[in-house]
Design a protein that fits this description.
It comes from Janthinobacterium kumbetense. The chain is an alpha+beta fold. It is built from nine helices and 13 strands. Helix 1 runs antiparallel to helix 2, helix 4 packs across helix 5 and helix 7 crosses helix 8.
Length: 266
C-alpha cells in the first residue's frame, strides 16, 4: 500500500513522527498548481522535494525555486511556506531533530542524486510502521546520502520594507518584467534613491543584481525540463538567447547547456 497520499494542504503530522528508532518518515502529497502550504514549523527537520513538479519555498527571509532534481533542507522549528508552481508529487522527508544532517538554522539546497531518489521512492512504498527494520535501514541510508548532497543554491533574499516587498513580489511573480527602478519607485510610492538604498541595506545587493538572482532561480527548472533556451530567455525578459547565455556564463563560468551537461547544478 505504501505511504498514504494526501490531496490537500491542511497541516497534519505524519502517521509515524520521526523518532530515535525511525529517524526519517515521509508525508506524501499530490497537489495542483497554485496550491500552497501556509507558513508553519515543526519540531523535526524537513527535506522538502518533489518527485515531479516545481515548488517555491519561502523561509528565513529568502525564497528558492526548486525543480525535481533539487530539494531543500529546513532545520527544526524554522518557519517555512510552500507554493506549488506546477502539478507536483510532493514527498517531504521528516527528520528527527537529533539526526539533522546539517548544523545550524540555515536552509541548504540539495542535489537529489539518483541513489537518493531511489531511496525516497523505496521509503514511499512501505506501509508506515509495518516494516520497522527496513524503515530504519532506509532512514540510515537516506541520512548518509543527504550529508553528501549539499550544493550551491540561487538564493533570493526577501525584504521587510513594505514598499520593497511590493516591488519584489511583483518581480518574483513575473520575472520577465523589464521596468526600471524609476518606474517601480512611482508604483510603490518611494523615490528611486530610497529604493536603491533599501536594496543595498535589506538585501545586500543592487536592484539589478537581485532581479538577476530571481531570473536565474526561475531559469533553473525551465532549463532542467528541456525548455529551449530561446524560450527561457524570452520568458525572463532578455532581448535574445545570446544575452541570457552571456549573463549565465558570467555568473557560472559556462553556458547553460554546458553547465547542465556537466552534471553540475544550480
Amino acid at each position: 500500500m505504501g505511504v498514504p497520499i494526501l490531496h490537500h494542504t491542511r497541516m497534519c503530522p505524519p502517521r509515524e513522527a520521526p523518532s530515535a528508532t525511525i529517524p526519517v518518515t515521509m508525508i506524501a502529497r499530490d497537489l495542483q498548481p497554485d496550491e500552497f502550504l501556509l507558513p508553519h514549523s515543526h519540531p523535526w527537520g524537513q527535506v522538502t522535494m518533489a518527485l515531479e513538479g516545481v515548488l517555491r519555498i519561502t523561509a528565513n527571509n529568502s525564497s528558492w525555486v526548486l525543480p525535481p532534481m533539487r530539494a531543500i533542507w529546513i532545520a527544526p522549528n524554522v518557519e517555512h511556506a510552500v507554493t506549488i508552481l506546477e502539478k507536483t508529487r510532493l514527498r517531504p522527508l521528516c527528520i528527527h531533530a537529533a539526526r539533522a544532517p546539517f548544523a545550524g538554522h540555515d536552509c541548504k539546497v540539495l542535489e537529489v542524486s539518483n541513489l537518493l531518489r531511489q531511496l525516497i521512492m523505496a521509503l514511499e512504498q512501505l506501509d508506515p510502521g509495518q516494516e520497522p527494520a527496513r524503515e530504519a535501514l532506509l532512514a540510515e541510508l537516506i541520512l548518509d546520502e543527504l550529508k553528501r548532497s549539499a550544493t550551491r543554491p540561487i538564493r533570493v533574499p526577501l525584504p521587510g520594507d513594505k514598499r520593497l516587498k511590493s516591488l519584489c513580489d511583483s518581480l518574483i511573480e513575473k520575472p520577465g518584467l523589464n521596468q526600471t527602478l524609476e518606474h517601480w519607485a512611482q508604483q510603490v510610492g518611494a523615490s528611486e534613491r530610497t529604493l536603491a538604498r533599501l536594496f543595498e541595506r535589506e538585501l545586500g545587493m543592487s536592484f539589478g543584481q537581485w532581479r538577476q538572482q530571481v531570473r536565474l532561480a526561475h531559469a533553473a527548472p525551465l532549463i532542467a525540463r528541456g525548455v529551449p533556451l530561446s524560450q527561457v530567455a524570452e520568458e525572463l525578459g532578455y532581448a535574445s538567447q545570446s544575452a541570457f547565455s552571456a549573463m549565465f556564463k558570467k555568473t557560472f563560468g559556462s553556458s547553460p547547456s554546458a553547465f547542465f551537461a556537466q552534471g553540475d547544478r544550480i
